[in-house]
Amino acid sequence: MPDFPIWPQCNIGCVFCSNPVEGFRQTTDRYALDELKKKLSDYKAGLRTFVKFDEERDYFNLTGGEPTNHPDFLKILAHIRTEFPANLIRLLSNGRMFYYEDFARRTCGIAQTPFEIAVPMFGPDPKTHEAISRTPGSWAQTTQGLRHLAKHRRPGQLVEIRIIMTKVQVRWLDGLLDYLLAEHPWVDRVVFLFEEIEGFAEQYKDRLKFTQSECAAHLDRNYEKLKRFKDARLYHFSLCTVPERLWPFVWNTLAGFKVEYQEGCRTKCAHREQCVGVHRSYARHMGAPDIAPIAVARAAVPTGDRFHPFR
To answer: Which structural domain, as residue segments, surrounds residue 120?
Structure first.
């Protein structure tokens, strides 16, 4: 599952953005079409070319910045599909470019399958959404973009909504879930990601940070709503911070170099093998006060899948 950044610039300014602050968005010369083709060619030849999940060979996460802002985005997408016809391509996008219906149609047509698009939503209306995106008009473009994706996606193509769980975001969580269930019930998956406070987000850490346990309590309060989605997932949560009835929603997706384990977690926790561990930024900025070994195994039924550990 290589994370493949294809464009450093972005057309929104999220307060939780984890991209580097200094110089990152000025590196567009490194992302020319020929440069990206060379990177893919090296990868296909077995060379190590990606920082995250380079060892995975079955799909790509296209990231940024905002990937769809690349002036040759559709050419890049076509090249990946041609060179890797069986691989899943997952596009992480803020969705604004899909406001343009022809762009949405062409993207879905070129991508074929397997293909997924993951779009973040921050609030149920322009005021709440744009308090985080910090970009006027972005709510209307993203929501219209979702409608165009619903219209033009091919059979087998999936659309996912991502909700980045920060202290700011949870103020509008209940209303956002109601909005998604009412207006976008067709969405294939809703993912709740616990924040990674690094890069750009570090300057806003005092506004964003809270504990995983506090975050999980907000999700647990909405348990009945979570069950109504086709597929609801929790990413980046340590098991000891999550009520047991939410464990079937937990998925483990962090790269190994981002993870650490607190004292006793490796040797005293009954669920060490099923747990994602602790993101380094959580330990650094929040102190991981709610992380503790689970001494006695819970009744949750294991799947044997390290990415989705419980039924």
So the answer is: 3-183
Nearest in space to 209 (alpha carbons), one of 201, 199, 220:
201
Q: What is the pLDDT of residues 177-216, one digit of tens each?
A: 999 999 999 999 999 999 988 877 787 788 888 999 999 9
Q: Are residues 240 and 179 in the same domain?
A: no
The distance from CA 262 to its chain's CA centroid, rounded to whole angstroms, is 24
Q: What is the pTM of this model?
A: 0.93
216 C-beta neighbours (distance < 10 Å), count: 22
Q: How far apart are CA 239 and CA 309, in angstroms?
A: 10
Tokens of 285: 């900025």
Nearest alpha carbon to residue 44 among 82, 84, 1, 88 = 84
Calpha distance 187→161 (Å, rounded): 7
Cis-peptide, bond into residue 293, ω within 30° of zero: no
- Count of domains forming the chain: 2
pLDDT tens-place string over residues 264-285: 898 999 999 999 999 998 988 8
Domain boundary among 183, 202, 236: 183
Residue 138 and residue 30 in one domain: yes
User: Is 124 found in the same domain as 55?
Assistant: yes
Q: Interhelix angle for 33-44 vs 73-83, to 10°? A: 20
In a domain, 189, yes or no: no
| Sign of torsion over alpha carbons 167, 169, 173, 175 | positive
One-character DSSP codes across 110-146: HH-SSEEEEEE---SSHHHHHHHH--TTHHHHHHHHH
